[in-house]
Inverse folding.
């Protein structure tokens, strides 16, 4: 289905910097459809217009039934992950102008079950994230009067700080080739979080976490394709975290 | 067995196999290719126990490494409790069968059956 309407035609402002692109949105309702189909919309954009804004324009002016998940619009909540022109990205963090294409195709993330259109289920991501115990494990607690803080040196902080930037958007899991075939694989997001806590000097749960990820669908199924690190919008390097975790498993680190 | 132990064996067998296969190739270079594959030459190799022992070790290393690799590939292709058990035990059985078949040749030569 094609809609040739343009926002430029409906917009009365005489801004000459407006350009237009064709936005192709994947439509799929698992309860009704057998296969994904694409709807095309002509959308005007400015240099700063993001893909999410373009999708919201479509919802506002052409088809309100397009399903998309979003919230913060500033790459913080991790809700609007999708495949944009073939690459997993955050729609709110991707400017149309930086794609250098007259056609922008948006599809739901790979390796996630589709709820509808661009919205996917996050249950598996949250389950695997929860599985690696993403919190500090200690016998004592900060409630003790003698120790209200767990002090760390800047060097100790550097060991894990980049991994704490994870926003659970799922783009790394979407890009992972092992996730595509192994439905039981823990995934780069959870493995990176396992490393984040294992490397934290305040944490005492290393052995528990290493045991959890040391199974036939755990850390060893990573083939180090590195695509998880390529797509992370927050600069986290899950592939490196996984290799560092392997260092613990192989006895190179303690 | 824990997966980390299996993978340590996997990496270890790969490294050891590279070293021993290099020795094997160097030994083959001591004579011409056609000459090397002659019946008498092959039998002589098997009767030379240090070399036959090395071939046996290479067979074991490559079988362990290869069948574990196959197990990993099959586990990634499909999941399920029964399937995964069948793959794991199937690979162990196939590995033992291959090692037994390869060893049989060396034993037959050295016991005068060939």
């Amino acid at each position: 289905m094609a809609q040739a309407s343009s926002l430029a035609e409906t917009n009365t402002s005489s801004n000459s910097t407006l350009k237009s692109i064709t936005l192709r949105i994947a439509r799929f309702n698992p309860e009704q459809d057998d296969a994904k189909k694409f709807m095309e919309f002509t959308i005007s954009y400015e240099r700063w217009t993001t893909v999410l804004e373009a999708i919201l324009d479509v919802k506002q002016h052409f088809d309100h039934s397009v399903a998309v998940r979003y919230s913060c619009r500033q790459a913080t909540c991790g809700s609007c992950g999708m495949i944009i022109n073939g690459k997993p990205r955050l729609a709110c963090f991707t400017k149309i102008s930086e794609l250098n294409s007259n056609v922008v195709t948006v599809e739901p993330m790979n390796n996630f079950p589709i709820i509808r259109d661009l919205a996917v289920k996050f249950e598996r991501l949250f389950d695997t994230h929860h599985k690696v115990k993403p919190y500090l494990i200690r016998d004592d607690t900060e409630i003790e009067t003698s120790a209200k803080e767990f002090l760390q040196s800047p060097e100790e902080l550097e060991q894990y700080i980049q991994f704490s930037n994870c926003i659970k958007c799922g783009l790394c899991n979407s890009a992972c080739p092992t996730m595509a075939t192994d439905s039981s694989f823990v995934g780069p997001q959870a493995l990176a979080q396992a490393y984040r806590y294992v490397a934290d000097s305040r944490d005492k749960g290393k052995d528990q976490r290493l045991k959890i990820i040391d199974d036939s669908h755990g850390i060893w199924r990573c083939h180090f394709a590195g695509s998880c690190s390529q797509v992370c919008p927050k600069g986290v390097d899950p592939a490196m975290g996984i290799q560092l975790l392997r260092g613990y498993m192989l006895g190179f680190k303690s | 067995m824990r997966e980390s132990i299996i993978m340590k064996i996997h990496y270890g067998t790969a490294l050891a196999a590279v070293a021993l296969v290099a020795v094997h190739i160097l030994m083959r270079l001591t004579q011409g290719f056609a000459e090397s594959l002659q019946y008498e030459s092959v039998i002589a190799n098997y009767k030379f126990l240090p070399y036959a022992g090395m071939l046996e070790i290479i067979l074991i290393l490559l079988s362990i490494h290869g069948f574990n690799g196959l197990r990993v590939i099959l586990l990634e292709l499909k999941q399920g409790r029964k399937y995964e058990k069948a793959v794991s035990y199937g690979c162990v059985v196939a590995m033992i069968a291959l090692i037994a078949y390869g060893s049989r040749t060396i034993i037959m030569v050295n016991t005068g059956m060939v």
